Amino acid sequence: MVAETKLYNALELSPSATQEEIKKAYRKAALKYHPDKNKDKPNAEEKFKEVSQAYEILSDPEKRKVYDQYGLDFLLRGGTEAPPGAEGPGGGFGGMPGGFGGMPGIGGKTRSFHYTTDGGGGLGGGFSFTNAQSIFEDFMKSQGGGDDLFAQFNSLGGNGGGGGRSRYRGSGGGRRRAPTPEVTIVEKPLMLSLEELFSGRQKKMRIQRKTYEETSGKRKVEDKLLNIEIKPGYKAGTKIKFKGVGDQEEGGTQDLHFVIKEKEHKDFKREDDNLRTYVELDLKEALTGWTRTLPTIDGKQFTLTKAGPTGPGYTEVYPDRGMPKSKKPSERGDMIVEVKVKFPTSLTLAQKSQLKDIL
What we know:
Shape: rod-shaped
Mean pLDDT: 79
Strand order of the largest sheet: 8-9-15-12
Number of strands: 15
Order of helices and strands: HHHHHHHEHEEEEEEEEHEEEEEEH
Helix content: 10-25%
Number of helices: 10
Distance between the termini: 99 Å
Largest sheet: 4 strands, mixed
Strand content: 25-35%
């Protein structure tokens, strides 16, 4: 049970409303009462302030939690009892007009006051509201409205003047709302073998994320199971992106990007879509011939025989035995076989003499 419901009433919501329902209700009410759409209705500006200020509290899980438990009066005072005579002229809390009046106070008392927009932090370091127009602009931008906020009024039957910026800047000297931080992107390495990148697969990964409970606003940690699709041919550096699955923060919910890292392979070195493998020969094999059975990335084998001589750095290219091409998985790169020759570290005089006679 909440201490009071006046902010919820302003947005025509119940205290059990989710954050998504709060956003939808505010958007509807703010567009309905915005002064640029209601120039012939003087009361619209007050309604616009009410719904904007209600949204500023209810959209913040921590402030909402304090409001639900103790009410707005407590929140504006910063959690302390107001000293005698602290109310401004006319019953305004902080002496500034704009917003609600007749809010019940702590201890069952009823006092008439208005939201303060003086930016001075309120009495005793309490909360003070942002300028209503600033709240609205930041909200619209966070919903993808961009800078041309009032072009949307045309499609909603408003008279915003055919687009452009709002001329309404609000009254009461309220502070400008700090820009909402952009949603951060968290990158995590995803180590994969060449075999996994060759065939592609689905990997399940369990992560922990920090969120807020919808009703109480308490911070909590929850598990989330992600299904990661790895397509054949993905390369190191490829990012597999998940939107809105990370920690919940002020700007929204973090995006999570898995960045592919290739595990070192015992047989192959990847070069784009090609695979390079090495055959090491001793000097005798290089001069007289050799045979090797070589593995392929798809688990097969083939035999390579050369009569010799074979020089260091000699290569042979085998088409369609490399990695799949990610954009055309039916096509594959090449397998490149490169020869390395291991020379003896020392020779006797007799061996040198024999080689001179042979060569």
